Structure formats: C-alpha cells, structure tokens
Amino acid sequence: MAIKRSIETKLDTQLTRADLLQALRQEYGENDLFPPTDITEDWLKLTDFDPENVIKLAPIRPRKGDMLGSGIV
What is the DSSP letter of 63? Predict the structure, then answer.
C-alpha cells in the first residue's frame, strides 16, 4: 500500500499501521479460496491436476534438525 501511494503521489512515503492492516485483510481474503480440509480431491480441483497423475498430496513439514524447524532463522 505504501509503495502504491508513493508511486501515485511521487513522494517518499512511510509504511503505516493502516497499510499493514489493509494488506493483512486483502491477503486473508485472497486465501479464502483454499479448501478448509485436507481432502485430496478438493486440492486437486484447485490445482487442476488430473487425479490419475497424482500419487500423494501432503503438506510440507520441517524435518527434525532443519534450521527452520528448530526455530533458528
């Protein structure tokens, strides 16, 4: 939002709390299209994959010992 405002006004702008809240609402609304369940068929419809060509569909989870999984960034 701040970048768009800066482009429109041709002035340097600061990122505000209102920008973050608006971006959060927009992002949340855009992600509303994702299926609320882990039913494979629902996700395959979303991704347009042919079910005959899919062996398994699973979320990505950190492995033990991964830097990201351990909370160390």
Answer: P
Q: How far apart (Å, rounded) are the C-alpha atoms in residues 30 and 12?
A: 28
Quote the pTM value: 0.43
pLDDT, one tens digit per residue, over 26-44 is 888 777 667 677 777 777 7
CA distances from 14 to 1, 9, 25, 55, 68 (A): 10, 12, 19, 48, 30
- Strand, helix or coil at 47? helix
Of how many residues is the chain composed? Answer: 73
Q: Find the radius of gyration of the CA atoms of the chain.
A: 19
